[in-house]
Backbone:
C-alpha cells in the first residue's frame, strides 16, 4: 500500500532537491554522466536530470498546399481502411478480399475529402507544415547533498562541480563559504603630543568696523555676522488653477481702480483749493 506522501508526489511533482554535480548542454551528455554513475554502483535513486531554460521550437518541414493535405489524408485513410478491414475479418470470417477493398476505398476517400475540407475552410491555416518541440538549453545532474562529493569524484568534476543548490536543499552548494568573517577594527595609534608653539607675527591694527579688544580679553564693538543659509530645500510652489488666476487678476484691477480714484480725488481737491 502506497503512503499518502508518495501519492501526493505522483500527483503534484516537485523539483528535486540537492546539489548540481554536472551541467551539460545536451541531454545525451547528461545521460552519459548518469550511465557513468550507474557503472560505479552509485545509488541512482538520488540522481535526477533537470532541464533548465525551456524553449518552444517549431521546426518547419515544408510548404503546405492542397496536394500535401490530400497526401496526408491518403495515408490516414490507408491506416483507417486497414483497421476497419481487420475488424470486418474478425467479425465476419467468411468475408473475402472483395469485401475488404470497398471498405478501404471508402475509408481513403473519406479521409482525403476530410483533409481537403479542413485545409480549405480553416481560417487560421498556415502556408507551411511544422513540428512543435519543447527543448531545454542545458541539463543539470542533481544529487542529494550527502552524496554530492562521491558523485563529483566519479564524474571527475572536482570540488567546484556544483555551483548551485536546488530548492529545498538545506546544504549550501560546494565551494560556498558560509562562515562569518571577523570584522577588522581600525587600530588607532597613540595621540601625538602637541608640537612647539608657533611664533606669532606682529599684531595687525584693527580696521574700521572691527571690534576693538579691551582689557580682560573682551571684545566690544559692532559684531556683524551673516545669517546661516537654510539647508532645508525650498518648498515648490503649487501651480495656480485657472480660477485662482482669475481671482488674482480681478483683485489687481480693483486695487488699480481704487488708486486711480484716490489720485483723481486728490487732484480735484488741490484744484479747488487753488481756485479759492
Residues:
Amino acid at each position: 500500500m502506497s503512503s499518502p506522501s508518495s501519492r501526493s508526489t505522483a500527483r503534484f511533482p516537485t523539483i528535486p532537491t540537492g546539489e548540481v554535480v554536472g551541467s551539460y548542454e545536451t541531454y545525451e551528455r547528461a545521460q552519459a554522466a548518469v550511465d557513468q554513475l550507474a557503472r560505479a554502483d552509485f545509488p541512482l535513486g538520488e540522481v535526477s536530470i533537470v532541464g533548465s531554460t525551456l524553449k518552444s521550437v517549431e521546426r518547419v518541414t515544408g510548404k503546405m498546399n492542397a496536394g500535401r493535405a490530400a497526401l496526408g489524408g491518403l495515408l490516414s485513410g490507408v491506416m483507417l481502411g486497414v483497421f476497419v478491414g481487420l475488424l470486418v475479418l474478425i467479425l465476419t470470417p467468411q468475408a473475402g478480399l472483395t469485401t475488404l477493398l470497398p471498405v478501404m476505398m471508402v475509408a481513403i476517400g473519406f479521409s482525403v475529402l476530410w483533409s481537403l475540407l479542413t485545409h480549405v475552410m480553416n481560417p487560421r491555416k498556415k502556408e507551411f507544415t511544422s513540428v512543435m518541440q519543447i527543448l531545454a538549453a542545458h541539463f543539470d545532474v542533481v544529487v542529494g547533498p550527502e552524496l554530492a562529493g562521491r558523485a563529483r569524484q566519479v564524474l571527475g568534476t572536482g570540488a567546484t562541480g556544483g555551483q548551485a543548490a536546488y530548492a529545498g536543499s538545506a546544504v549550501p552548494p560546494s565551494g560556498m563559504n558560509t562562515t562569518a568573517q571577523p570584522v577588522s577594527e581600525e587600530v588607532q595609534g597613540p595621540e601625538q603630543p602637541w608640537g612647539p608653539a608657533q611664533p606669532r607675527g606682529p599684531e595687525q591694527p584693527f580696521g574700521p568696523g572691527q571690534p576693538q579688544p579691551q582689557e580682560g580679553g573682551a571684545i566690544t564693538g559692532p559684531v556683524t555676522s551673516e545669517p546661516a543659509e537654510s539647508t532645508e530645500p525650498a518648498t515648490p510652489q503649487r501651480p495656480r488653477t485657472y480660477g485662482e488666476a482669475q481671482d488674482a487678476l480681478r483683485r489687481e484691477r480693483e486695487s488699480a481702480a481704487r488708486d486711480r480714484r484716490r489720485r483723481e480725488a486728490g487732484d480735484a481737491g488741490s484744484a479747488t483749493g487753488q481756485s479759492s
Q: What stands out?
A: Helices lie at 4-11, 27-39, 66-91, 97-121, 148-155, 242-275.
